[in-house]
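It is time I had a proper look at our fold encoding. Can you supply me with one protein entry, sequence and fold together? It will help me judge whether the discrete encoding reads sensibly. Leave the record below and I will have a look:
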Amino acid sequence: MAVERVHRMSFAVDAAAPAAVLYGLVADSTHWPLYVPATVHVERLDFDGTRDRYSLWAGADGDVRQSVWRRTLDAERLRIDFHQEVPAAPVTSTGGSWTVDELAPGWSRLTLEQYVTIAGNRASDVERTRAATEADSRAALARFRELAERWDRLDGLRLAFEDSVRIEGPVAEPVYAFLYDIGAWPGRVPHIVRADVTEDRPGIQRVATDTLTLDGSVRTADSVRLCFPAAGRIVHKQTRPTALLAAHTGEWSVLPDTTGVTVVSQHEVLLDETMVERVLGPDADLEQARRHVREALGRESEAVLRMARQHARDSAPDQVRALRVL
């Protein structure tokens, strides 16, 4: 029996930030969709403060795959060990560690060590796997460095909010169907002028949209959407964020109860402070950027929520008696 070769890789980045800050960013996997370019969504399955198990949806160019990972966190040593439970072929095992070392006061090094074994050890499989691993690792390290060096401003750069609508009646299915069928939004949702949808695998949508802004210009964005119909959820992330945003994630949720449904639109964004003055003018500051993004995304969310409400009313006119916006 052939012995599988273990391929090892190591990547590192230095940051002008305290070691604890770098460790905290890596340890907080729930925010990786906002922090790590290739990560679309994370669902934590178990966590006891030291042992972490989570599902992760990630991939480049919209080719998103789901995987389950386990981590052991050691905050005292600033080290996180990880491995994937069931890797996708041809990979048979993969894992590694994150470590943070303090180089000097205010300077730290983040190191990512990874290993992978590949069935058959074919040169083409090895080359492809190593190239993908390197690209994702370097992108993640670069983003962690960027965020760590803004650690004293990170709370101001991160913004989370939600909007909702209340719809009376048993309308969860038509409301979810409306949110799922984003390709039909042009002509129905006023600000959506184009929505091209590709769904190569059930429940994973790649979407390219053109959105009409208040000044009459058209804004283009690319997104990935993960659809969970049994849970009434659609998670989304912009893979090509619009101006002012370094990252943008969100979720549509349809929450039924005994008398109707509450439809919630959640957004979490990471502002690109280098674009604030270019987009909003030379005197603009971060607080203005936060208000601008909140108002713009809120306005668009509320438009979709209104149309979801109208769709529910049209789909079940005898069942929907009263509608009110929360």
User: Anything to note?
Assistant: The first helix runs from residue 19 to 27.
